[in-house]
Amino acid sequence: MKRLLIWVFSLFCVLGIGLSRSENGLEDLKAKESLLSYLEKDAVSPGANSLMVPLTLIQGAASKGAVCLDGTPPGYHLDPGFGSGANSWLIQLEGGGWCNNIRTCVFRKTTRRGSSKFMEKKINFTGILSNKPEENPDFYNWNRVKLRYCDGASFAGEGHDEVNKLYFRGQRIWSAGMEELMAKGMQNANQALLSGCSAGGLASILHCDEFKDLFPPSTKVKCLSDAGLFLDAANVAGSHTLRNMYGGVVTLQGVQKNLPSTCTSQMDPTSCFFPQNLIANIRTPMFLLNAAYDAWQVQESLIPNFADPHGEWRDCKMDHSHCNATQMKFLQDFRIQMLDAIDVFSKSNQNGLFINSCFAHCQSERQDTWYQSDSPRIENKAVAVSVGDWFFDRTAVKAIDCAYPCDSTCHNLIFK
């Protein structure tokens, strides 16, 4: 049965960090921060018995320049594996938008997305991070890690702004995190999965082959990107919102030097921050989990406020059931663009897909969409089962949903 997750928000909200053109800058950024948190994993409250895992700061990271935007040390949450999973590792890269200019990066320094001073001391492990077999059948007893996101460039930046005391050190945070985890036992892993959601999903694509190269050839290593398939798509006004945004991120944070040369040798750096231009050249097996009508992209990339000055799309973007035929065709065309973008990727036997026709975002960390009795399904197979079947080579998984409104299992997000 379709579940409607409703977020009541009094402000005229848009999603993400760094796309605002509002005069009320600070309040607008705070609103986006709150809504982004909701979108990623807070829409469904974890149960009373869910696992709480403490934050560990990476000692010595600062001496290597591996610091958050404000210069504080990065951190992670680790719940050790046990039993048959004692030598298996799952790394989840946290998401949380990007910052593409000084203003938005300075703001992020005052939040958990830019400073470990503001990170929660403990967080819930649910979905793919759960320690319960009934919630996470294939990975519950693995070593499960959440690497916190505090750089604003999908763990890929390298730079420094002395005037504003901003440190763009995402690549160093990634390296310091991996070095720390290898020393804590990951070097002995017999199997490992790098995953991530949203901006972390993009990071899992960017770092997939690097992750594989940490291990000997005998280690089974794969990657999962959840809601990370951000497209270079035109918005309702005909301009490319996300391309403009990514251009700022890449330039400001010095991302170019850390992008795959297989792409930068042929395309401009901004294009090489888009997953659609990277996925076909990744050597390591990868699974793409994405909603065909990704809620973040619908709200922030396709229908940002500035592209809809008269509010003609407002009702549609807040609740897809309010879209007229013309508007729905626009969204259907976006789905077709997504399917075109994964065409070459999908032909590789080693890769996996779960593209459901839902208005959702980040389906691996939330218990209701990862694995429950009424969680989303394609051909009666839940997300968790599909990912597990693919990782353990039980069966090939190339699940692509029929177009909206055919799927009655979606947990669609509706904004009021």
UniProtKB/TrEMBL annotation:
<dbReference type="Pfam" id="PF03283">
    <property type="entry name" value="PAE"/>
</dbReference>
<dbReference type="GO" id="GO:0071555">
    <property type="term" value="P:cell wall organization"/>
</dbReference>
<keyword id="KW-0378">Hydrolase</keyword>
<feature type="signal peptide">
    <location>
        <begin position="1"/>
        <end position="20"/>
    </location>
</feature>
<keyword id="KW-0134">Cell wall</keyword>
<keyword id="KW-0732">Signal</keyword>
<dbReference type="InterPro" id="IPR004963">
    <property type="entry name" value="PAE/NOTUM"/>
</dbReference>
<keyword id="KW-0961">Cell wall biogenesis/degradation</keyword>
<protein>
    <recommendedName>
        <fullName>Pectin acetylesterase</fullName>
        <ecNumber>3.1.1.-</ecNumber>
    </recommendedName>
</protein>
<dbReference type="GO" id="GO:0052793">
    <property type="term" value="F:pectin acetylesterase activity"/>
</dbReference>
<comment type="function">
    <text>Hydrolyzes acetyl esters in homogalacturonan regions of pectin. In type I primary cell wall, galacturonic acid residues of pectin can be acetylated at the O-2 and O-3 positions. Decreasing the degree of acetylation of pectin gels in vitro alters their physical properties.</text>
</comment>
<dbReference type="GO" id="GO:0009505">
    <property type="term" value="C:plant-type cell wall"/>
</dbReference>
<comment type="similarity">
    <text>Belongs to the pectinacetylesterase family.</text>
</comment>
<keyword id="KW-0964">Secreted</keyword>
